Recover the amino acids of this structure.
């Protein structure tokens, strides 16, 4: 049974049962993934200068899309380290995960693509550099992250935060996110901005990838020393378009229960009430300007002015 089928069954079970199943399944899945990575190395290892490819992104920031595109290079396979999954199930997220110094020691002679939500602490950056691993860091407007996060967690019974969103309205769920998750997510972005080594990494915005996925994917392939020819990149981008990954929906056509929910930037404006604008403004006003998402803080009161 594939992952999608398993998740379909899991959504019909009580949340406590799905969480137990998740804890058990993660180790079996990791074992299968690591075997595939080692088999990939046997066949294709000599073709690639870099054997471990690392992607960092907050949940619901487009990192799975990037992961799918990069893992389409022959021989590479996705690998979720069990330590990450265990931390997320125990704490409600992995954005504050600290890598042990031997994090990647067991991944010798394997072609690995690993995506993590962990922050860019000095420790994590140092572990990556000591291991000789280049990395892509993906950011997204945190207001859009909040909206996508709420819908995803609301429909994911095994998620540790599910109980806070399952019966919540959109407004209630977004207030919960602002209180429980937003401060850590702001710190996450700042940590990678402050600590990432530009000689071994690139930082991309999800919004930039939406606008020009060929250019973004070319930058990623170049960093990882993969085939970055125009024909290869265009073929990969086409294979993993929103329409194909969502089962036929066009970008902007929403499904609140699907992992690939809507595939657009700026959807937050359709959900933020004056109360939410005020709450998020207290935490994000300077942050959004600093990171180029807004020119000023007018968005906080914009809706009120329009309706007054």
């Amino acid at each position: 049974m594939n992952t999608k089928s398993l998740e379909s069954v899991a959504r019909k079970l009580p949340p406590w049962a799905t969480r137990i199943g998740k804890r058990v399944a993660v180790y079996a899945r990791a074992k299968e993934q690591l075997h595939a990575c080692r088999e990939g190395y046997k066949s294709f290892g000599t073709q690639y200068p870099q054997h471990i490819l690392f992607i960092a992104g907050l949940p619901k920031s487009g990192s799975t899309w990037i992961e799918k595109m990069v893992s389409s290079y022959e021989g590479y396979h996705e690998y979720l380290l069990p330590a990450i999954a265990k931390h997320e199930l125990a704490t409600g997220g992995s954005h504050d995960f600290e890598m042990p110094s031997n994090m990647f020691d067991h991944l010798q002679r394997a072609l690995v693509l690993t995506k993590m939500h962990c922050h860019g602490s000095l420790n994590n950056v140092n572990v990556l550099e000591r291991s000789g691993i280049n990395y892509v860091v993906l950011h997204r407007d945190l207001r859009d992250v909040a909206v996508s996060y709420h819908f995803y967690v609301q429909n994911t019974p095994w998620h540790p935060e599910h109980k806070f969103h399952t019966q919540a309205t959109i407004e209630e769920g977004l207030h919960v996110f602002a209180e429980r998750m937003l401060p850590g997510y702001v710190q996450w972005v700042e940590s990678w901005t402050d600590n990432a080594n530009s000689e071994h990494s690139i930082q991309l915005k999800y919004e930039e990838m939406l606008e020009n996925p060929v250019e973004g994917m070319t930058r990623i392939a170049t960093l990882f020393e993969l085939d970055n020819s125009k024909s290869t990149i265009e073929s990969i981008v086409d294979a993993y378009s929103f329409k194909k990954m969502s089962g036929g929906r066009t970008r902007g056509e929403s499904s609140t229960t699907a992992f690939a929910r809507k595939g657009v930037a700026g959807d937050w404006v359709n959900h933020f009430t004056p109360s939410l604008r005020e709450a998020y403004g207290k935490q994000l006003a300077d942050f959004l300007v600093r990171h180029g998402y807004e020119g000023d803080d007018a968005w906080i009161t914009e809706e009120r002015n329009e309706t007054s």
